[in-house]
Design goal:
By secondary structure, the protein is mainly alpha-helical. It folds into three domains: 109 residues, no CATH class; 125 residues, Four Helix Bundle (Hemerythrin (Met), subunit A) (Up-down Bundle); 119 residues, Orthogonal Bundle (Helix Hairpins), CATH 1.10.287. 74% of the residues lie in helices and 0% in strands.
Length: 375
């Protein structure tokens, strides 16, 4: 037996403690020597062939012992594991390389339109582009203000104002065209894009009518309506200033309570019309008697016909109750003349002001609180 002195192995049982033996007697001797070595009783000298017994007796024709055979098997297994690991790692590297080459080929094979669309889409969604468009919309608002003042004074807008408004319109057209090119048909499913389409169409019709000079042919009302459609461009500023959190939050809250305000308006109109019908049936005779017999409201033509019809009664109730304008000009003389009419005036005041309006305010505040909790 030869021991590996370079590795510092001086005991044969330190070679491979995990080896197995075919001979139980040899294994028992090996375990006994291991126990002696662990307890310190084993000699530091190398054991003789007689001490080890048949442990290192050759077991085959090549003169190999059991230790040598087991060590060779373990070495072969380690080598096989290393080779299989190398093969797996090589296959992984090869597959990743092939995948990366395939993706590069796919990117290189993209049509030019796809690259242009991606670049234009990033440009439109950039904060710088949105800020510039928002500034143009605000500048267009100032131009609309100056244009309305000039036309109300019977003057034509300055030439630079007309050119600037046309330039602002064509900026909107270019943005609309680019967004349609980038998003395709899916763009028209967006409400913002539908709003842009309305702005573009109304602006085109307005400029076409101005170029034909339809304003001097008695169709100025159509152009006035189209000019009012310019205000739709201001709504687009919300789309381009979405990075302003406070403004976006305020507009979202306003939109969330729009439905509440709509139903509150309908409820108030229904209730006010009901009181107006009662006023026409009950209060109008008292007003007519006071105006004709007692000469009251001689200097107030509107007071004399305050309840002549349901429409005028609605206007009177809205003026006196909701707006709080001259409530006593009509109500107090009628109540003094016929005290029982106070039920109509007081009832309409309490139900509309302290009922519908305050209830609407409470619902709006509750809607704001609910929206804040959801966020």
């Amino acid at each position: 037996m030869q021991l590996d002195s370079a590795a510092g192995v001086s005991k044969p049982w330190r070679l491979r403690p995990q080896v197995s033996f075919d001979n139980a007697h040899v294994e028992a001797k090996w375990r006994a020597n291991m126990a002696k070595y662990a307890s310190g009783e084993a000699s530091t000298e190398e054991p003789s062939q007689a001490e080890m017994g048949d442990m290192f007796v050759p077991d085959n024709d090549f003169g190999e012992t059991q230790f040598q055979v087991q060590q060779q098997k373990c070495d072969d297994e380690d080598s096989e594991r290393r080779r299989s690991a190398i093969r797996r790692h090589s296959s992984i590297l090869l597959s990743s390389y092939i995948t990366s080459m395939g993706s590069e080929e796919e990117e290189g094979s993209w049509p030019p339109n796809q690259t242009k669309k991606s670049r234009l889409g990033k440009l439109l969604k950039s904060r710088q582009c949105e800020t510039v468009i928002a500034i143009i919309i605000l500048f267009n608002f100032v131009l609309m203000y100056l244009d309305a003042d000039a036309r109300a004074a019977g003057q034509k807008p300055a030439k630079w104002q007309t050119i600037s408004m046309s330039a602002c319109y064509w900026v909107v057209v270019v943005e609309f065209a680019i967004r349609t090119f980038v998003e395709g048909r899916q763009a028209f499913s967006s409400r913002w894009h539908q709003l842009d389409l309305c702005v573009v169409v109304s602006g085109f019709v307005e400029q076409l009518l101005q170029w034909i000079d339809f304003d001097s042919r008695g169709i100025g009302g159509i152009i006035s309506v189209l000019r009012c459609c310019r205000l739709l461009r201001l709504v687009r500023i919300v789309r381009h200033l979405n990075h302003m959190r406070e403004l976006t939050r305020l507009l979202e809250m306003t939109g969330s309570c729009a439905r509440t305000l709509f139903w509150a308006f309908l409820l108030m109109g229904f209730l006010m019309t009901s009181w107006a019908i009662l006023a026409v049936e009950v209060v109008r005779p008292c007003v007519v008697e006071l105006a004709q017999s007692h000469g009251l409201w001689a200097d107030c033509e509107r007071c004399r016909r305050a309840f002549n019809s349901v429409f005028e009664a609605n206007l009177t109730l809205f003026q006196t109750i909701v707006s709080g304008d001259s409530w006593g000009a009509v109500a107090l003389p009628v109540i003094e003349f016929r005290p029982w009419t106070a039920a109509i005036f007081m009832g309409s005041l309490l139900t509309i002001v302290f009922g519908v309006l305050n209830l609407t305010m409470a619902v709006v505040v509750d809607t704001f609180a609910e929206a804040r909790e959801n966020d």
